[in-house]
Design goal:
The chain is α/β, with parallel strands linked by helices and 820 residues long. The strands form ten sheets. Strands 6-5-14-16 form a four-stranded antiparallel beta sheet. Strands 10-11-9-12 form a four-stranded mixed beta sheet, covered by helices on one side. It is elongated, with a radius of gyration of 35 Å. The two termini are 41 Å apart. Bound molecules: zinc ion (2 copies). Residues 415, 417-418, 420, 443, 445-446, 448 line the site of one zinc ion.
Length: 820
């Protein structure tokens, strides 16, 4: 047995094992193994932002605990790692860095710059994953921006197009008029701006009456398609169904009722325009209203704006307000602070435009999504309703096209002559239609030889929502179905509606099969103030600071123990500090055991003269194994870590080790056989703790294992040792009952010494224990050696009779008198 250094140096230990594990190659998935069952983790490919933040730390700790646990359970674990590279934010940063707009640079050059930036960010984030000690199989690493991945995204599109899931159509989308692209909700920022509320008269048709409408966007009046009010607004509901005339354009529209209208805002009457805001989109769809498109893609008024055509939005607003005033239809204006959506790249006001886009038919799958979601195991179970409710709530299909550069191209061309759509063949991908023509001589419909490439590209979710199949080796490995569906799909609570959902619809449509068998949900990391951790809120803690200060094993305990799986986890420094104190405690008890086990020869076959407390702690370790295994099976990492820490700290260190020290130090009093029994028990129980703990704190447990156990146990790494199987036969309730009493006597005597301010090693000349019955007396006599040794008792007398003296906690019938 090698000796352990006195001091626990986490930085050195963690760095050493991270390197050695990689050298050992113990995390490599064996694609050809048919002996062990496979277990595949659908690791999310993170978006390279350059920072592996505390939220990532929480997620990756979860996946890594599962991976390490399953390996010990005998599974061939696939723990892949990819990077979801494409995205608007990378484009924006490249534009800033090079002081250009994307259209000013050749697309190839622009892409190169994006790729370089992504590589820089990946390197930073990878460092975080490595420092956390994640058991990723790096031979599986992939990037969605690589041609090899394009191939997969494009192939899936081709297959889905053939199956009839892909179509083109017009639909309202968030649109930046400056960048001239559709943008996702996630790319819209919100800013407080000073607005003006204009009170405008809308005359009722064939009447001298009018309704007053307050709006911040009078420039949209030419696109007004209805007027809306609350059905129970007694002031106006008599007008529901009647016609009202839109000023300026003199067009009659219908007055409709909707409970979404807030009667206390403005005048309680609102105009619905296509589209002033997102509420308009909802109303238009709900009431099946017509659409008048008013804006061009670069943010000017189009021909539907009549005399205002060609003006910018701001010019149009000014002119229309002047015209309203001149016509006597503008009653008054008021200043109004308002929150407006702006493009996160250029801060321009985001408009809503109906433009031609590519869609995937997702709503037709809703029933199948619901059925499948119910068959999937969810940790925790109630999370499945989030996916189901989301799928049911969708009003429209998934817009999969974007107008960007740094993304996977849509592999489609159009015939220049007849407009026929040419879909790429499977063998042509990866392909960029902007750089290459379709591999055909002429248009199959009209024979023309000229083609126009599709310039739109895919939404990044199109890349990342096929990971379950890609990780399994689709489409290259003929046996990819052996590793599909993924055994576990881990997802943040915030992306169930995107990632878990898109994965589900994509794989159902492609393979008619669920992408994952189970879904492991993590909550959000909250700052110390209880709000979601965010750089803008001053409650932000950077992960390199945490990992640098306390190391991975302590940080992982915070992640595992911070809250129930699926619930939000607050980041608190004291939790990480507690994790570190626990590690020091484990280190110290190991160092103690290491010292006292130097003359111990481990043996599985030898018979030991086990004492009551040995049997007691062995039985409790068996029960701990049962509880931790059950918690791990149910992904209740907080329960697992708490059980292990409580057992180690209290049962093992405070009680057992204290009670057997004397046996270990003074075999001349107790006999070599009893010393050997304590050595054997300490050796095996500590080993059990190390094994149960190793998925959570892999570094320290490995270090102790290698010094104390590797030569005898024989596994190259603790990670390769089989998870201990719980054995009911090893639970000894009677031994626990007896041991509990002996421990209680020892604790009470020590407590009395502490209360009397005596050192714990002060001698008790005589200890008289009064018990109610002979059986109890017998138990205490069995524990005599450990009681007298630990409490320094010169003479112990146990009397099976009621007596006075100090009562032992939880044993009201047992008293003692100690004479010092
Ligand atoms: Zn923009
Ligand atoms: Zn043609």
């Amino acid at each position: 047995m090698q000796s352990l250094p006195k001091k626990y140096n986490f930085a050195e230990i963690e760095r050493k094992w991270q390197q050695k594990w990689e050298e050992m190659g113990i995390y490599h998935f064996d694609w050809n193994d048919t002996r062990r069952p496979a277990f595949s983790i659908d690791t999310p490919p993170p978006y390279p932002s350059g920072e592996f933040h505390m939220g990532n730390v929480l997620n990756w700790t979860y996946f890594d605990i599962v991976a390490r646990y399953k390996r010990m359970r005998g599974f061939n674990v696939l723990f892949p790692q990819g990077w979801d590279c494409h995205g608007l934010s990378i484009e924006v940063q490249v534009e800033k860095e090079h002081e250009i707009r994307k259209r000013d640079a050749p697309p190839d050059q622009f892409r190169k710059w994006c790729e370089q930036l992504v590589e820089k960010y990946i390197a930073l984030m990878k460092e975080g994953i490595l420092k956390l000690g994640c058991s990723v199989d790096w031979t599986t690493e992939y990037r969605t921006m690589d041609p090899d991945y394009w191939k997969r995204t494009q192939l899936s599109f081709i297959l889905l197009h053939r199956k009839g899931y892909m179509y083109q159509g017009t639909h309202p989308v968030n649109w930046c008029p400056r960048c001239e692209t559709a943008i996702a909700d996630a790319e819209v920022d919100y800013e407080e701006k000073a607005g003006t509320l204009h009170y405008i008269r809308f005359p009722l048709e064939n009447s001298s009456e009018y309704l007053l409408i307050a709006t911040t966007r009078p420039e949209f009046i030419p696109a007004c398609v209805a007027v809306e009010l609350h059905p129970e607004d007694a002031r106006f509901n008599k007008y529901i169904g009647k016609k009202i005339v839109v000023p300026i354009v003199n067009r009659a529209v219908t007055i409709i009722a909707d409970e979404a209208v807030d009667p206390s805002f403005g005048t309680g009457v609102v105009m619905i325009c296509t589209y002033g805001d997102k509420e308009d989109v909802k109303t238009v769809i709900k009431h099946k209203l017509p659409v008048i498109r008013l804006l061009t893609e670069n943010g000017r008024i189009n021909k539907n704006g009549g005399k205002y055509a060609g003006l910018t939005i701001n010019q149009a607003r000014k002119t229309i307000v002047e015209d309203l005033a001149a016509a006597g239809l503008l009653e008054k204006t008021e200043k109004l602070p308002q929150e407006v959506g702006v493009c996160d790249r250029c801060k321009s006001h985001v408009e809503i435009l109906e433009v031609k886009q590519w869609f995937m038919k997702t709503r037709v799958l809703t029933e199948q999504v619901e059925k499948t979601a119910n068959e999937v195991l969810w940790y925790p179970d109630y999370m499945k309703t989030r996916l189901i409710d989301w799928a049911r709530s969708l009003d429209w299909d998934w817009v999969i096209s974007r107008q960007r550069v740094f993304a996977t191209p849509i592999p489609v061309w159009y015939c220049k002559n007849c407009g026929e759509l040419i879909l790429s063949e499977e063998e042509w991908v990866p392909i960029d239609p902007k750089l290459e023509n379709p591999h055909i001589d002429k248009c199959p419909k009209c024979g023309s030889r000229q083609f126009i490439p599709e310039r739109d590209v895919f939404d990044t979710w199109m890349d990342s929502s096929i990971t379950c199949a890609v990780h399994a080796g689709w489409p290259d490995r003929p046996d990819w179905k052996r590793f599909f569906p993924a055994d576990v799909h881990p997802s943040g609570i915030d992306i169930i509606r995107t990632w878990a959902y898109y994965l589900m619809v994509r794989h159902l449509a492609l393979f008619n099969e669920t992408p994952y068998k189970s879904c492991l949900i993590n909550g959000m990391v909250l700052g110390s103030d209880g709000r979601k951790m965010s750089k803008s809120l001053k409650n932000y803690v950077a992960s390199p600071e945490v990992l640098g200060k306390y190391g991975s094993d302590a940080t992982r305990q915070w992640a595992a123990g911070g809250g129930a799986t699926g619930s939000d986890v607050p980041f608190r420094w004291p939790d990480v500090e507690y994790g570190r104190r626990f590690l020091v405690k484990l280190w110290n008890v190991s160092a103690f055991a290491n010292k006292l086990l130097q003359d111990y020869a481990p043996s599985e076959t030898a018979e030991f003269a086990l004492q009551p407390l040995d049997k007691w702690v062995l039985s409790k370790a068996e029960k701990l194994t049962q509880k931790v295994t059950e918690a791990m099976e149910n992904c209740q990492f907080n329960i697992a870590v708490e059980e292990i820490r409580n057992f180690t700290w209290h049962t093992l260190c405070d009680c057992y080790v204290e009670a057997v020290k004397d046996r270990l130090y003074r075999p001349e009093t107790h006999g070599e056989a009893k010393k050997a029994a304590a050595q054997h028990t300490l050796y095996e129980v500590l080993y059990r703790v190390l094994q149960l703990l190793s998925p959570i704190t892999p570094h320290l447990t490995e270090e102790i294992y290698q010094a104390m156990y590797a030569p005898h146990k024989g596994f190259k790494s603790l990670q390769l040792s089989p998870w201990p199987e719980f054995e009911q036969a090893l639970v000894d309730e009677e031994a626990e009952r007896r041991g509990d009493l002996i421990i209680a006597v020892i604790a009470e005597v020590r407590r009395e010494k502490a209360e009397k301010r005596m050192p714990l090693n002060v001698q008790v000349k005589k200890l008289t224990v009064y018990v109610g019955d002979r059986e109890t007396a017998e138990i205490i006599r069995e524990g005599e050696g450990d009681i007298t040794g630990t409490c320094k008792v010169a003479s112990l007398e146990v009397l099976a009779e009621k007596g006075s003296g100090r009562e032992i906690a939880q044993y009201p019938e047992v008293h003692f008198v100690a004479e010092y």
